[in-house]
Design a protein that fits this description.
- This protein is an alpha+beta fold.
- It folds into 3 domains: about 5-180, Formiminotransferase, N-terminal subdomain (Formiminotransferase-cyclodeaminase, Chain B, domain 1), CATH 3.30.990; about 185-350, Alpha-Beta Plaits; about 355-565, Four Helix Bundle (Hemerythrin (Met), subunit A).
- About 55% of the residues lie in helices and about 15% in strands.
- The chain contains 20 helices and 13 strands.
- It has helices at about 15-30, 55-70, 100-120, 140, 150, 170-175, 195-205, 270-280, 300-310, 320-330, 340-345, 345-350, 355-360, 365-375, 385-405, 415-450, 455-485, 490-500, 505-530, 535-565, and strands at about 5, 10, 35-40, 45-55, 90-95, 125, 175-180, 185-190, 210-215, 235, 240-250, 255-260, 285-295.
- Strands 1, 2, 3, 4, 5, 6 and 7 form a 7-stranded mixed sheet that branches. Strands 11-12-8-13 form a 4-stranded antiparallel sheet.
- Helix 1 packs antiparallel against helix 2 (about 55-70).
- It is flat, with a radius of gyration of 29 Å.
- The model has no long low-confidence stretch (mean pLDDT about 95).
């Protein structure tokens, strides 16, 4: 899984477009990130920038943004409606995929240290990055705002986590930055079949973590109960990590429950949806759909789609696109307006279409186009890519039988068994499809090495080293294809013996395709290994390939014996 994090810095400038543009440009110029949104506010005199990318690129871009803001914004002259303590006020790192919140917290602490050591801007660490328990709350770190810094920076209890221990001229100009790590926040509205704000609020109070005030006697009109310290006693709601209110939206002519899910690991979107539906039903109302405000990580919709499929006792071993479609329809994400995943899912938004097209040139073609591309006078794609594609087809056939078996009338109790097989098949299918293009990329690396200059001794040495590395890679890629194709056999064997008997021949064809993939890829291992100067490595790779090929032949025979016995 690709490692992706989001950063949402808030800069204390919302009026001067030149300053805002310069800060955003500094973030973009650092490279490797994509700016998704720039939201300036004149009343708050504050701009929120949202950008994403791999962790290393995001951290560097965040640093460059802080540096630029520190040079262009003078906090001595800043005024706005929003609380703030620095030119870069808050700087949260947010895990999207392939990385944990704890890892983001460590990155945030290192970033805060760098900001102080290199820019002399003091930093507080908050939420998951907090180094002191009391500083998990951003409001504690920012208490007193910019104006309180002279006093706070020399107070041992309130001084920054990274700072000089006294108030400095740099702090006077740039203020202090709050660097943190937090989970992704999902802003979502649940559409109700009512115009009543009061009823929408009642549902919100039922489910939000804070809940509602406890009352004596009548739960609506009774006197609010206070504790010994005079604080309102609350009856907690049912959803952890959720804030919610009810409101009426003129644009749609309906009331909604508006919710922020601040902990999507504890309360995923689909869990919140089901609970709001339950609470609405208990009050005689219905949730007619869901409106996602802003963006969501892909896993949010994948988890939801899989959840609703499992509730139906349907196989989850289907394509990512189909799973997301189930999520959209199950939660009514298109109730008020069309829901386009390519515009709402972070991972889809940051994908560079040109880079993806170049990386997946072959698998994006039609079957006809791929066949004609192979038949052209170009040496690539060749047998290696075709072998990987045959393996992918074998996995696809096994997955198809698993899905048909999970839906077979009378086999309802076995749906999970076959769904699990289909999930494994989808994973293998994705791995082998990636190898279709990777094999051609490996060939292109060899051609690039052959095209290097070879005039001087130094150039000859560099060319030889590049050619050896490219040849080794071109040998290892088909070996990966062999291993992945061999993993198809447990799937097709299980489907031949336990799957829908009407599809047993499909499982057999899957075995034939998988064996052809293994043996075809072995030929590529052998021919590429012959070009290696490191003969020990060549022999080792060829020996490993021979073992895999022998295993594939035996596996194919075992599957065909089952198939022929049933036909």
């Amino acid at each position: 899984m690709e490692r992706i994090i989001e950063c949402v810095p808030n800069f204390s400038e919302g009026r001067n477009r030149e300053v805002i543009d310069a800060i955003v440009a500094s973030i973009e110029k650092s490279g490797g990130v994509k700016v998704l949104d720039v939201d300036p506010g004149e009343a708050t005199n504050r701009t929120v920038v949202t950008f994403v990318g791999n962790p290393e690129a995001v951290v560097e871009a965040a640093y460059q943004g802080v540096k630029c803001a520190g040079e262009l914004i003078d906090m001595r002259h800043h005024h706005g409606a929003h609380p703030r303590s620095g030119a870069t006020d808050v700087l949260p790192l947010i895990p999207i995929s392939g990385i944990t919140l704890q890892e983001c917290a460590e990155l945030a602490r290192k970033l805060a240290g760098r900001i102080f050591s290199e820019l002399e801007i003091p930093c507080y660490c908050y939420e998951a990055a907090a180094q002191k328990p009391g500083r998990k709350n951003l409001a504690i770190c920012r208490a007193g705002e910019y104006e309180a810094l002279p006093e706070k920076m020399s107070d041992p209890e309130r001084m920054p986590d990274f700072g000089p221990g006294c108030y400095t001229e740099k702090a006077a100009v740039s203020g202090a930055t709050n660097v943190g790590a937090r989970d992704f926040l999902i802003a979502v509205n649940y559409n109700l079949n009512t115009t009543s704000t009061r009823r929408a609020n009642a549902i919100a109070f039922d489910v939000r973590e804070k809940g509602r005030p406890k009352r004596e006697g009548n739960p609506i009109t009774g006197k609010i109960v206070k504790d010994a310290e005079g604080k309102t006693v609350m009856i907690p709601g049912t959803l952890k990590g959720c804030k919610a209110i009810g409101w009426y939206i003129d644009e749609y002519g309906i009331a909604q429950v508006s919710m922020n899910i601040t902990d999507i690991n504890t309360t995923p979107l689909h869990v919140a949806f089901d609970e709001v539906c339950r609470a609405a039903s208990a009050r005689g109302l219905r949730v007619t759909g869901t409106e996602i405000v802003g963006l969501v990580p892909k896993r949010t919709l994948i988890e939801a789609g899989r959840y609703f499929l499992e509730k139906q006792q349907r196989s989850t071993g289907i394509s990512e696109e189909e799973i997301i479609k189930i999520a959209v329809k199950s939660m009514g994400l298109d109730d008020l307006k069309p829901f386009n995943p390519s515009e709402k899912v972070i991972e889809y938004l940051i994908e560079d279409e040109d880079e993806a097209a170049a990386r997946e040139k072959l698998v994006r073609m039609t079957c006809k186009g791929f066949a004609y591309e192979t038949a052209s006078e170009s040496p690539a794609p060749g047998g290696g890519s075709i072998s990987a594609y045959m393996g992918a087809l074998g996995a696809a056939l096994g997955t198809m039988v698993a899905n048909l078996s999970s839906h077979k009338p009378g086999w309802d109790a076995r749906w999970k068994e076959f769904s699990d097989w289909a999930d494994k098949g989808q994973a293998l299918l994705g791995k082998l499809l990636a190898l279709v293009d990777e094999d051609t990329a490996a060939f292109n690396r060899i051609m690039a090495a052959l095209g290097m200059p070879k005039g001087s001794d130094e150039e000859k040495k560099a060319r030889a080293e590049a050619l050896e590395a490219a040849t080794l890679y071109a040998t290892e890629v088909p070996l990966k294809t062999m291993k992945a194709a061999l993993d198809v056999f447990p799937l097709v064997r299980a489907m031949a013996s336990e799957g829908n008997p009407n599809s047993v021949s499909d499982a057999g064809v899957g075995a034939l395709a998988a064996r052809s993939a293994v043996l075809g890829a072995q030929l590529n291992v052998r021919i590429n290994a012959a070009g290696l100067a490191d003969r020990a490595a060549a022999e080792r790779l060829c020996a490993e390939a021979a073992e895999i090929a022998a295993a594939a032949v035996a596996e194919e025979a075992a599957v065909l014996e089952i198939v022929n016995g049933k036909i």
